[in-house]
Specification:
Elements (H helix, E strand, L loop, with lengths): L1 H12 L13 E3 L12 E8 L4 E9 H5 L13 E7 L4 E5 H6 L3 E6 L10 E3 L2 E3 L4 E4 L14 E10 H5 L9 H13 L5 E2 L2 E2 L21 H6 L19 H14 L6
Antiparallel strand pairs: 1-10, 2-3, 3-6, 4-5, 4-10, 6-9, 7-8, 9-10, 11-12
Helix pairs in contact: 5-7
C-alpha cells in the first residue's frame, strides 16, 4: 500500500493541469538561463531519495538563491505567493513561497552516480525515465513530501499570487481559520479534489453542485480527512493522521463550509 501511495503522489506532482503559470508573473527559465545567472553549483547528499529509493549525491543549485533572482511583486506579501515548478511536458506543481525560502532545497542538474552520463534511469509507472533536465531535491531527512515536493523533468519556476494560481478554489474570506484551512487544503487536497471546479480530478469535486458539508455529517469530516480508510474500505485517499492535526482538519472543514457561500461555475 505504501508503494501505491508513493507512486500516486509522484504521479500527481507532474499531472496537475488545473492551473498554469503565465508570462505575466516573474519566472526563471532553467534551460535558457545564462551561466552567470545561476548560483555556484554545490554537491548535495540525500540520505534517501524518494524517486530512486536510495542514498544519492547530486550537483545542484540552491533553490533559495535562484528564487532571490526572481523579483517579488511589491503588492504581495511572502505568504500570498506560491512557487510554481513547471515540467518539460507543461505540467506543474506548487509550494508555498515561504516554505521554499525557509527550507534548504536544491535544483539538481547531475547525478554523480551516473558518470559518464548526467542521469540514471528509474521506473515511473510503466515508463523508464530520468529526472532530466532538472530535479528538485531536499537534503533534510523527514520533510513532509506534500509540503516539500520532489518534481522532476523541470524546465522553469515562477512566482504567482496564491489566489490567482488556485483560481476559484481560493476563498473570498480571509479570517484566520478560513485562511489556514485553505492553506492546508491547497497543500494536501487540491491535487486530487477540486472546489468550484478548480483543482484535481482524481477525487470528487467538493462544492458544485453541492458542498460536501451539505451531504456529509460535518462532525465526521475532520476524521475522514485525517484517515479516510477508517470510513471507507478500498479508498485510495492516503492517511494524513501523522501530518494533519485534528484542529487543522477542522479548519479545512471550516474553509469548505465557507466556500458553500461562494459557488462558482
Amino acid at each position: 500500500m505504501t508503494g501505491i501511495r508513493q507512486l500516486l503522489s509522484f504521479v500527481l506532482l507532474l499531472s496537475l493541469p488545473q492551473v498554469s503559470p503565465t508570462a505575466d508573473w516573474p519566472n526563471f527559465n532553467l534551460l535558457k538561463a545564462d551561466p552567470a545567472q545561476l548560483p555556484k553549483p554545490e554537491t548535495v547528499k540525500i540520505s534517501h531519495d524518494p524517486v530512486y529509493k536510495s542514498a544519492k549525491e547530486y550537483e545542484a543549485y540552491s533553490l533559495s538563491e535562484i528564487l532571490n533572482k526572481i523579483p517579488v511583486p511589491p503588492s504581495l506579501k511572502d505568504d500570498e505567493l506560491v512557487v510554481v515548478f513547471t515540467a518539460a511536458d507543461g505540467y506543474n506543481v506548487s509550494m508555498a513561497y515561504q516554505d521554499a525560502m525557509d527550507e534548504k532545497g536544491f535544483i539538481a542538474f547531475k547525478d554523480n552516480a551516473a558518470e559518464p552520463k548526467k542521469w540514471l534511469e528509474f521506473k515511473f509507472g510503466k515508463q523508464t525515465i530520468t529526472p532530466s533536465p532538472f530535479y528538485l531535491v531536499w537534503p533534510k531527512k523527514g520533510l513532509d513530501e506534500w509540503r516539500f515536493p520532489w518534481p522532476f523533468q523541470l524546465v522553469s519556476l515562477s512566482l504567482q499570487p496564491t489566489k490567482s494560481y488556485f483560481g476559484a478554489a481560493a476563498p473570498a474570506k480571509t479570517d484566520d481559520r478560513t485562511k489556514n484551512g485553505f492553506k492546508l487544503f491547497s497543500r494536501y487536497c487540491i491535487r486530487c479534489h477540486s472546489v468550484n471546479l478548480a483543482g484535481g480530478k482524481v477525487g470528487p469535486e467538493l462544492n458544485i453542485p453541492k458542498n460536501i458539508t451539505e451531504y456529509f455529517k460535518e462532525q465526521e469530516l475532520p476524521g475522514f480527512i485525517r484517515n479516510a480508510a477508517a470510513y471507507r474500505a478500498g479508498t485510495k485517499m492516503p492517511s494524513f493522521e501523522n501530518i494533519i492535526t485534528p484542529n487543522d482538519a477542522k479548519d479545512i472543514v471550516h474553509y469548505l463550509k465557507q466556500m458553500k457561500l461562494g459557488k462558482k461555475q
